[in-house]
Amino acid sequence: MLEWSFPDTASNPVMKKYLPYIAVGLLMLCLPAIGSAEGRYGNPFYISGAGTFVVPSDSDLASNNGGTNTALQAVSAQSELSTGFGGSAAVGLFIKRRFRIEFEYAHKSADIDQVILTPPAGTMMIPSQGEMSINSFMANVAFDYRNSSRITPYLGTGIGLGLVDFQNPTFTTGGVTIPGSTDNDVAFAFQLFGGVSYWIDPQIVGFVGYKYLNTGDPTIGIVTPSIDTHNFELGLRYYFSRP
Fold first, then answer.
1. What is the distance between the alpha carbons of residues 225 and 78, in angstroms, rounded to a whole number?
2. Does residue 48 sit in helix, strand or coil?
3. Residue ranges of E strands in the chain
4. In sequence order, what E strands does 97-150 have?
5. I want to staple 184 with a disulfide (CB 3.0 to 4.6 A). Which of 93, 165, 177, 227 is the partner?
6. Residue 116 · residue 123 · CB < 8 Å
7. Given pLDDT bands bounded at 50, 70 and 90, which one contains residue 200?
8. Cα–Cα distance between 150 and 92 in angstroms, integer?
9. Would you say 129 and 139 are in contact if contact means Cβ atoms under 8 Å apart?
10. Residues β-bridged to residue 48
């Protein structure tokens, strides 16, 4: 019988050891532009926050055991995830009114509905009560298309790191008890985003936007799932001085 579970790990030592240095390094990306921007526009900084509706793509599950696990290599596996929610917060600065550089933290989560296994003999659908979450730390660059109206379209991109976490509680299906487990990994992440801002007043901006986030192929137990999400945001941005 083929069982699905993630091995237990208490924590991610890589994340604990290096996260403070990663955060400082990403923030340092903002510093070279502060002097020139502050001289022209006063305080160039802003803060922002947004709520997120998360639509994760179904995740292909590939074995990370190379050619040594021939049984798993012969099985095609995919996890189906439901929609979820999240949020983000960022601190940044504007440059020449149209460019922004920011450091962003975001959290996203979604339930794992089921795992579909396709061995040579047929297809197996294993229900799941697990959850996937992503904590991302990104350095973003954005361009605002400023014009004479209050509406400002924007485009941007970002790179950073994503902590991908899978949690699978103990549950019983078909008379079989699936043991609980948890595992996580840190992976390189990138995102592309765009949207529309609306100037409520000279320093407060509301925005709606879309973000595509890809966290590569983290190692989760004996598999390397492909993780990408489509994220729809609604938020506010506050400038400390008028850009």
1. 8
2. strand
3. 45-56, 59-63, 76-81, 84-95, 99-118, 124-144, 151-168, 171-173, 176-178, 181-201, 204-214, 223-225, 228-239
4. 99-118, 124-144
5. 165
6. yes
7. very high
8. 21
9. no
10. 90, 237
2, pLDDT greater than 90: no
Contact residues for 56 (Cβ-Cβ < 8 A; gap 6+) = 81, 83, 84, 110, 132, 227, 228, 229, 230
**Rounded Cα–Cα distance for residues 125 and 228 (Å):** 22
pTM: 0.71
pLDDT in tens, 213-222: 998 777 766 5
> Which of the pair, 67 or 47, is modelled with greater confidence?
47
What are 102-156's pLDDT values in tens digits? 999 999 998 877 666 665 555 666 666 678 889 999 999 999 999 999 999 999 9
Task: Give the CATH class of 13-239.
Answer: mainly beta
Asked if 46 contacts 241 with a C-beta cutoff of 8 angstroms, the reply is no
